[in-house]
Amino acid sequence: MKTLVLADHDNKVLKDATLSVVTAAAKLGEVHVLVAGNNCELVADHAAKIAGVGLVLLAEDAAYEHELAENVAPLIVNLMSDRDAFLAPSTSTGKNVAPRVAALLDVMQISDILSVEGPDTFTRPIYAGNAIATVQSSDAKKVITVRGTAFEKAAREGGNAQVEKIGTTGDAGLSSFVSAELSKSERPELTSAKVIVSGGRALQNGENFHALIEPLADKLKAAVGASRAAVDAGYVPNDYQVGQTGKIVAPEVYIAIGISGAIQHLAGMKDSKTIIAINKDEDAPIFQVADIGLVGDLFKIVPELTEKLPG
């Protein structure tokens, strides 16, 4: 069985999400990685070194620079003639491309898998992660998105795959890239961070969020996250959001400050190794999943905690 993995990258750096998908794909058979972009030879070279990768396909075209689904999907469909499954990470790019690939192949998409039980059988979360469904597909071609936190990351070194340049399908003329407003930070990227400090609506406003959460994160060399309520209230940008409709994370330590623990937020972080919650409401749902819970006023606790930490 041959699988095709879509590399998640920015034309310069291969993102960690790809490594987890390679691990999942390896459970199905031979792993081929597609790097579709523009001036992205370095990404292809890095993909070739991933342990377990058998072949890297490099498709370079200005139409692929921003990985628009309307342009990338036809390329993938062309490559699926002699492959059995297409896997993409459950990132914004993967979730954008995979449904269009499934539609063009006229097959069912299996979303957000947690495990590979067999060549046609997988598990995936339902009801915001409160139940796990086992699904079996009878489609000849499988289209799958992979929850990165459910699979170990493949080693970035150890592979020696061939890089093969392939033809492109060009611009489909259905969409165009206009602009992107991306926040820049020296902190770790949210989905790959080992420690995350997240803030919720209880912080009351953006000024408090930045004044309390960011110094603590800096002391811990942590990434900064937020609940949907905090994002919707405008405290921080959308790319900070952790949860079912945000980013799925599983760090070594997750610190939830002023977050009640709504189901949609828990779905995005409950696989964290150690969960620490600070909240004045002792009945907050977050305490049901927390390994360490501290009931109290975050406006007093967080500055004191930050002050006592070295660095």
From TrEMBL:
Binds 1 FAD per dimer. The keyword Electron transport applies. Keywords: Electron transport, FAD, Flavoprotein, Transport. FAD binds at residues 201, 227-228, 241-245, 258-265, 279. GO terms for biological process: fatty acid beta-oxidation using acyl-CoA dehydrogenase. GO terms for molecular function: electron transfer activity; flavin adenine dinucleotide binding. Transmembrane segments: none annotated. Pfam families: ETF, ETF_alpha. This is Electron transfer flavoprotein subunit alpha. It comes from Sphingomonas changbaiensis NBRC 104936. It comes from the Bacteria. CDD domains: ETF_alpha. The electron transfer flavoprotein serves as a specific electron acceptor for other dehydrogenases. It transfers the electrons to the main respiratory chain via ETF-ubiquinone oxidoreductase (ETF dehydrogenase). Residues 3-181 form the Electron transfer flavoprotein alpha/beta-subunit N-terminal domain. SUPFAM superfamilies: Adenine nucleotide alpha hydrolases-like (SSF52402), DHS-like NAD/FAD-binding domain (SSF52467). Its cofactor is FAD. InterPro entries: DHS-like_NAD/FAD-binding_dom, ETF_a/b_N, ETF_a/FixB, ETF_alpha_N, ETF_asu_C, Rossmann-like_a/b/a_fold. Belongs to the ETF alpha-subunit/FixB family. Heterodimer of an alpha and a beta subunit.
